Amino acid sequence: MEELQDNIQFQLTDELIEKVEVLVEDQNDKELKLLLHEYHYADIAEVLDELDHDDAVYVIKLLDSGLTSDILMELDEDNREKILKNLSAKEIAEEVEELDTDDAADIIAELPEERQEAVISQIEDEEHKAEIQELLAYDDNTAGSLMAKELVKVYETWTVAGCLRRIRGQAKEVTRVHSIYVVDKEEKLIGRLSLKDLIVAKSDQKIADIAKDNVDFVHVNDDDEDVAKVMAKYDLEAIPVVDDNQTLLGRITIDDIVDVLKEEAEKDYQLAAGLTGDVEADDSIIELTRARLPWLFLGLIGGVGAFIIMEGFQEAFSQYAVLFFFTPLIAAMAGNVGVQSSAIIVQGLANDDVKGSVNNRLIKEMLLAALNGVILAVFLLLFIWIYIGELDKAIAISVSLVAVIIIAGLIGTFVPLFLDKRGIDPAIATGPFITTSNDILGILLYFWIAKLILGI
Amino acid sequence: MEELQDNIQFQLTDELIEKVEVLVEDQNDKELKLLLHEYHYADIAEVLDELDHDDAVYVIKLLDSGLTSDILMELDEDNREKILKNLSAKEIAEEVEELDTDDAADIIAELPEERQEAVISQIEDEEHKAEIQELLAYDDNTAGSLMAKELVKVYETWTVAGCLRRIRGQAKEVTRVHSIYVVDKEEKLIGRLSLKDLIVAKSDQKIADIAKDNVDFVHVNDDDEDVAKVMAKYDLEAIPVVDDNQTLLGRITIDDIVDVLKEEAEKDYQLAAGLTGDVEADDSIIELTRARLPWLFLGLIGGVGAFIIMEGFQEAFSQYAVLFFFTPLIAAMAGNVGVQSSAIIVQGLANDDVKGSVNNRLIKEMLLAALNGVILAVFLLLFIWIYIGELDKAIAISVSLVAVIIIAGLIGTFVPLFLDKRGIDPAIATGPFITTSNDILGILLYFWIAKLILGI
User: Fold this and answer.
1) How far apart are CA B59 and CA B36, in angstroms?
2) Which PROSITE patterns match (chains A, B) (predicted)?
3) A340 contact residues in B (CB cutoff 8 A)
């Protein structure tokens, strides 16, 4: 049992980090290798992410590229960038030789323009080099930018026996064989089969006879998020990628899709929280400020807007100072309702389950907001009436609250739907954007209606 | 090429839905089968989700269980529930017979207690029944509740040839063979190999010689989110599940993990937006009210708190009405900063990349908030000074803003860290919770400091 250890039990400890730092300090290469070889490359990457990057570079240069290439892929992007800066084009090329084409292309794409050529020219395996250059040519966020060239391909005319013999060669360079793709002599994708089918089949059967022709595939220019949705929806663990002529170009595996899904979810979450760009807790104060300040400015402008509105109503409400004390409540409710309704729409759009017309959505949201608004308004009315004892003000404030909540709900529903129709990411409509606009509008509406009701 | 169609091109059209509705109306079973058999079960599920559920039940009863069992798994949970209500225990058992044990157990678990027994008793395949009962016994959100019993298992003593012969049998009932798990005669997991390894190996080699002994695995009681993290981190597409004795119990495949990751991300997103429970845009107004109202109540209470505070300062600030006009600004900034800082912590905790001590976090956040606060305060100061022309008020308001932003940032950072340490989901600390508490505290702080500076 010794060599079996539950991966969930790996914990990044300060002891381990220190141990590595000391060994690097002492340049005790032998011990360092012994220690690190006990760990999975993803765990070693976590350790290196914690070292200052001279030490990390030392470790990368020490271990053999078979291992370090995998470690590099697992590092935080900023750390990887720092480390690659300290490696020669030749050293990077050696790492790249060890990687699948998709990872290789990703790493090279992260390098500054001028270094990319230098690294590529150092790649010895000509086929590998050509494939990487092909992948680098595809646009970001397309199936082409996600796919790998490594796959197992057989011709329809082969027999099971001949096939098994031949794919032994191909399979060696493919980390995981999900599907075997069947092509005709023009390299066009015409079907697929699994290793399982091959093993279960009789050895003299023709591939054409046992191949499944209902093969799923995507086009090289399809959007990567669409590819992710399709693979998740159809429970696919790999999907082949073709061009306009149905020619098999590569395949996308689900582990890449997991990353796409995670990134997309994190992006939406951050936008909802008022953070631009992909920031992490460990980023520098400058990076974090860059992500946070723009939204705070928006909030500042909104607040100034609210001030101007309230000042405008100062005269009219000189006898009704109490109304001003409820503006934070009005603003908060308008903001909360707006975020709730927009978040539901944004998530629905992301999952493709927002159906029916925009009007139906708005009518539904109006009913929903009205229901919530009335319930809340009743409590507010009772509180004000009892607390201040002036029914007219209580009614004015409560009725305005209902109106504000309804409008806030409608805006929160409409804006993301509108942005989505315009091809803009609806996620930007959540968070500070919606709260700020709802704050101003809510307060304005509040005073208007109160004025009306109180007959000022 | 005809039979190949790009799945990304499937669009759920009203035409298709109507076509199905008409065919159901006319009870035109033949046409209906012909039409639906053109589509993937996941697509058919999308259609059924749009039908009213009598029609959906009709379709389910029409198609054969081999197909409908897959369709059922893809339906929205509420729709599936409605449909299962209309199927007899025998009919549900037939569907269950077609499903892998993990899906089968999930479906049965969704049934009301009393029906579960009835359905299980109707399952004919005794082994399948026993396995499902075993899975039903594991707690929710554990590896046991995620795993399937279907896997390919070989004994270390077998030869490659004998192994290939024997797994032909096992493989038939396993949809996807990710790994072949090697066990000793006590059924203990001692290694793994891939079909690829088996095919590449010589037929007279012993399994023990070609098996990899560095097999990853999880314990049956491990938390499902931890399993998801591990599989994503180590890029695993399947992981075996063992008990305390290292006995191989089942395996978890990555498609289940994709669901876990998506659900987790959606839950955090909804909490940040002030939504409880897993609601969708298409849920009923009642369901949506249940999800939204509690948070709005929180907001209402916060607003009332703000009112009471402002009323308390009314006397003192009778000459400074203008200060009250900035309370929405103060509240908004306190809320935004709180959400930003808490969101970064929540996401960091979810990705296990919040390292270092709590104190360091707080110090960093304080510096960050101070930097942002000062920048914003300068603009506010200039605006008020120019607009109102009273420097003392401008200073009082701006300085308070900085203090409010710092406190808001600290609360937003501390609360989720604190909840996490206490084993409470930190995600509840984002959204309305943090904005509401920050609103009140912010406004209180604002008046205190203004009072101090203005020497009232």
Assistant:
1) 9
2) CBS
3) 273-275, 292, 295-296
**Whether the predicted interface score ipTM is above 0.90:** no
Answer yes or no: are the C-beta atoms of A343 and A265 closer than 8 Å: no
- Are B280 and A353 within 8 A, CB to CB? yes
- How do residues B330-364 score in pLDDT, each as one tens digit? 999 999 999 999 999 998 888 777 777 888 889 99
From A335's Cα to the closest Cα of chain B, the distance in A is 9
Q: B48 — phi, psi (to 5°)?
A: -60, -35
State how far residue B118 is from chain A, nearest Cα, in angstroms: 30
CATH number of the domain bearing residue B126 = 1.25.60.10
Query: How many CB atoms are closer than 10 A to CB B133?
Result: 15
Q: What is the CATH number of the domain that holds B216?
A: 3.10.580.10
Task: Quick: pLDDT tens for B155-174.
Answer: 999 999 888 887 776 666 66
Q: Based on the domain organization, do B156 and B109 belong to the same domain? A: no
Tell whether B296 and B426 lie within a shared domain: yes
Q: Tell me the pLDDT tens digit for each residue of A203-247.
A: 889 998 999 888 889 999 999 888 988 888 888 889 999 999 999
Considering the domain architecture, whether residues A357 and A397 belong to the same structural domain is answered as: yes
Mean pLDDT of the residues in chain A: 89
In a domain, B276, yes or no: no
In this prediction, residue B9 carries a pLDDT of 63
Distance from the Cα of A281 to chain B's closest Cα (Å) equals: 6
Chain B residues within an 8 Å CB radius of A42: 233-235
User: Counting one residue from A and one from B, how many pairs have CB atoms under 8 Å apart?
Assistant: 379
Give the distance from residue B455's alpha carbon to the nearest chain A alpha carbon, in angstroms.
22
Q: How far apart are CA A267 and CA A450, in angstroms?
A: 40
Give CA–CA dist B21/A362, Å, rounded.
26
Residues B401-434 pLDDT 10s: 999 999 999 999 999 999 999 988 888 888 888 8
Contact B371 A285 (CB under 8 A): yes
Tell me what pLDDT residue B157 has: 92
Q: Model-level pTM?
A: 0.81
Measure A62 CA to nearest chain B CA, in Å. 23
Is residue A272 a part of any domain in this protein? no
> Which of A142, A160, A186 finishes a domain?
A142
Per-residue burial over A119-135, b if 16 or more Cβ lie within 10 Å, else e, is: bbebbeeeebbebbebb
**Which one of B1, B8, B168, B282 would you mutate to disrupt binding with A, by most A Cβ within 10 Å of its Cβ?**
B8
Kindly report which listed range (A240-254, A347-361, B109-123) carries the lowest average pLDDT score. Answer: A347-361
Across the interface, which of A174, A235, A273 has its CB nearest the CB of B340? Answer: A273
Starting at the edge strand that comes first in sequence, how are the strands of the sheet with B189-193 ordered?
B152-155, B180-183, B189-193
The mean-pLDDT minimum among A31-40, A60-69, B278-287, B440-449 falls in: B278-287
Q: Are residues A127 and A166 in the same domain?
A: no
Q: Between A173 and A88, where is the model more confident?
A: A88
Are A340 and B295 an interchain contact pair (Cβ–Cβ within 8 Å)? Answer: yes
**Across all residues in chain B, what is the average pLDDT?**
89
CATH code for position B445: 1.10.357.20
**Does some domain include residue B277?**
no
Based on the fold, state whether residues B226 and B248 are members of the same structural domain. Answer: yes
* Same domain flag for A21 and A158: no
Please answer yes or no on whether A213 and B4 come within 8 Å at the CB atom: yes
* B244 CA to centre of own chain: 28
pLDDT in tens, A409-452: 999 999 999 999 998 888 888 878 888 999 999 999 999 999 99
Q: Give the structural domain span for A108.
A: 2-142
Interchain proximity B329–A177, CB inside 8 Å: no
Q: What is the mean pLDDT of residues A23-50?
A: 92
For residue A287, the chain B residues in CB contact (below 8 A) are none
Give the Cα separation of B178 and B169 in Å (integer): 16
The rounded distance, in Å, linking the Cα atoms of B98 and B75 is 16
Cβ of A174: how many Cβ atoms within 10 Å? 17
3-state class (DSSP) for residue A161: helix
